[in-house]
């Protein structure tokens, strides 16, 4: 396999993580809404955890994107 082809293949596989981050964000918000609808009184106390989960999922997506870009540019 050519080195350029292997580099682009690795970048494509790393970019999959950026797409999967959207699934993670959707799961975080779905779990929050499910819990908030079951117990509306506790929703305010869980909002900080919602944003932490959102940030963690986005961080992993951005990290996968950066790895893909680095693989393409090097």
The level-1 CATH class: Mainly Alpha
Question: Considering the protein shown, what is the CATH homologous superfamily?
Answer: F1F0 ATP synthase subunit C
What is the string of SSEs from the N terminus onward? HH
Any idea what the radius of gyration is? 17 Å
Please name the CATH architecture: Up-down Bundle
Main sheet specs: none
Structural shape:
rod-shaped
| Beta strand % | under 5%
Low-confidence stretches: none
Q: Which class of secondary structure composition applies to the elements?
A: mainly alpha
How far the N terminus sits from the C terminus, by CA atoms, comes to: 17 Å
Please tally the helical runs, counting DSSP H or I stretches of 4 or more residues. Answer: 2
Mean pLDDT score, rounded? 88
Number of domains: 1
Helix content: over 70%
User: What would the CATH topology be?
Assistant: F1FO ATP Synthase
Annotation, overall tally of beta strands: 0
Give an overview of the whole structure.
The chain is mostly helical. The protein has a single domain, classed as F1FO ATP Synthase. Helix content is 91%, strand content 0%. It contains 2 helices and no strands.
